[in-house]
Amino acid sequence: MDFFDFLNAAVTPYHTVDCLKSQFEANSFTNFEIGMGLEAGKAYFVCRGASIIAFRTPKQWNDSSRFRIALAHTDFPALKVSPNPDGMNAGVCTLHTEVYGSPLYTSWLDRDLGYAGMLAYVDAADSATLKTKLFRGAKLFRIPQLAVHLNRNVNQDGLKVNPQVDFNALWCGAAQDGNKNLFVNALEKELPDGARLVDFDVQLFDAQPAHGGGLNDEWIYSGRLDNLSSCHAIAEAIVSAESAKNDCLVACFFNNEEVGSTTREGAAGNFLESILSSPATPLSSILADSLALSIDMAHAAHPNHMEKHEPNHAPLLGKGIVLKTNSQKRYASDLMSSAKLRLLCEQAGIPLQVFITRNDMPCGSTVGPTVSANLGIPTVDIGEPMLSMHSIREMMATSDHADMIKLLKTFYR
After folding, report:
1. Quick one: which H or E segment has residue 299?
2. How many domains does the chain have?
3. CATH number assigned to the domain comprising residue 163
4. SS3 of 181, please?
C-alpha cells in the first residue's frame, strides 16, 4: 500500500483499520473468529472496533514455537465532535469539540479541517437492529484565531489557547429563518434513505494531503504520522512475509493509546491475549521466550532547540530508527530485548540511534510497557525520529521509514 495513500485515507482510527483490513484481504488473509480452527501456514486477521490484529501461523507448531509480535496504535491526538455540539454566535453555527489525547493546541487553528468517523443507525424497516457506517464528510470546517489587531501582544506573550472556548469549529452560516443547522441533520444525509441516526463518533482532521518536502524530497509532511507510520511499516512487513517454520508472526494495531490504552480496544484490554491463546500451546512459557517490538514515533533533535535533548542521545532525522529506553521504565526496553534489537539491526544492515529524555524532563510512554507487563513478553520500544510530534501536521524522514520497513521484514523473516 502506498504510504501517502494510506496517510490520506486513514483520517480516523476507524479508517485506519478499514485500510489495514482491505490490505490484508487483498493479500489472502482470512477474517478470523474466536473459536475458529487455525490451519498451519495460513494468514488471518480479526477486528475489534478501531483495533485490528493480523497473524501468520507457523508451518508447524512444536516445542520451539514462539511469537514474533509488532505493536502499534491506530489513534492520534484529535478534536472529537461532542455529543451535543451545536451552538450559534455572530450568525455562525459552531460545533463544540472535545480534546482527545494531547494535541499541540495552536496547530489546529486556521487549518482546513475535514470531519469523519463512524455512524450508528437503524433502518426504517428494522428499528431494533443497529448498523454502522464509516463515512468521511465532503465539506471543510475551520477554527479561526483572533487577528493580531484584536490580540496585540500575542507575538510577544505567546498564544494562550483555552480548549473550552477556542476549539469551537465554524461549520456553516446560520439559516435564514434563524433555526440552527443541527449537525446530526448533516450526518443523517450520510445514511441510506429512511435510516435514523442513533449515535456517532466523529472527529476533525487535517484535510491537507501528505506530500514530500525538503530540497531533495528527503522529508515527509503529513498529519497523523504518529502513529500511522508504524502501522504502515508493520502492515507492509507482515503482508510480504511468509509463514515461519515454527514461529507465529503477529501484527497488532491498538486504539486508544493516546488516552492510556485502558479500554476494550486498547493494549491494556484482553484483545491480544485472546488471540494468542487460540492455539493449544503453553502460552506463558512461550511468551517468556518470545519478542515484541513496540513501535511508536520518537523525538528527533530539533535544530532550533537542541537544549531540549540529552546531548548524547539526540536522534537525527534520516539517520536510522531509534531505540527508546528509560530508567523509570516508561519504555519497555530492557537489557536483553535491547540487545536482541541491536543484533536484528545488524542483520538488516540498518543504523540504530538511542534516545533517552533529559533527567529534568518527563518521559512519554507507549503500548510497550502495558503489553509486556500483562503478557510477560520481552519487549523493546523503537520508533522513527520525527519533528512536530502531536501537531496537526508532522514531519519525518523518508529514509527512516524505509529502514523501519526493512527492519520489520527482517524481524518476520
Report:
1. strand 298-299
2. 2
3. 2.30.250.10
4. coil
What are 204's strand-pairing partners? 79, 115
Strands 352-355 and 92-100: unpaired
Q: Looking at the DSSP assignment, which residues form a beta bridge with residue 89?
A: 92
Q: Which domain holds residue 121?
A: 78-206
Rg (CA), the chain: 23
Q: Are 305 and 294 in contact (CB under 8 A)?
A: no
* Cα angle 384, 386, 392; round to 5: 125
Residues of the chain with pLDDT > 90, as a percent, come to 90
Reported as a single tens digit per residue, the pLDDT across 289-331 is 999 999 999 999 999 999 999 999 999 999 999 999 999 999 9
Total number of residues shown for the chain: 413
CA distances in angstroms from 155 to 54, 275, 278, 302, listed in the order given: 49, 53, 58, 21
Residue type, 338: S
Tell me the β-bridge partners of 44.
30, 55
52 exposed, middle or buried (CB, 10 Å; 0-12, 13-18, 19+)?
A: buried
For 286: left if phi > 0, alpha if psi spans -120 to 50, otherwise beta; the answer is alpha
Q: How many CB atoms are located within 10 Å of the residue 319 CB?
A: 17
Alpha-carbon span 196 to 359, nearest angstrom: 54
Percentage of residues in the chain having pLDDT higher than 70: 97
Q: Vertex 386, ends 110 and 213: CA angle to 5°?
A: 65
In sequence order, which ranges of 76-166 are alpha helices (DSSP H)?
Answer: 154-157, 163-166
pLDDT 10s digits, 103-160: 999 999 999 999 999 999 999 888 889 999 999 999 999 999 999 999 999 999 999 9
Residues 148 and 49 in one domain: no
Q: Is the peptide bond before 227 cis (omega within 30 degrees of 0)?
A: yes
Q: Are residues 321 and 406 in the same domain?
A: yes
In-domain check, residue 88: yes
- SS3 state of residue 257: helix
User: Which grid cell sits at 362?
Assistant: 518527563
Q: 3-state class of 16 per DSSP?
A: helix
**Are the beta carbons of 37 and 6 closer than 8 angstroms?**
no
pLDDT at 338 over 70: yes
In 101-136, beta strands by DSSP E: 113-123, 126-136
d(CA 218, CA 182): 44
* Nearest Cα residue to 9 out of 74, 72, 60: 74
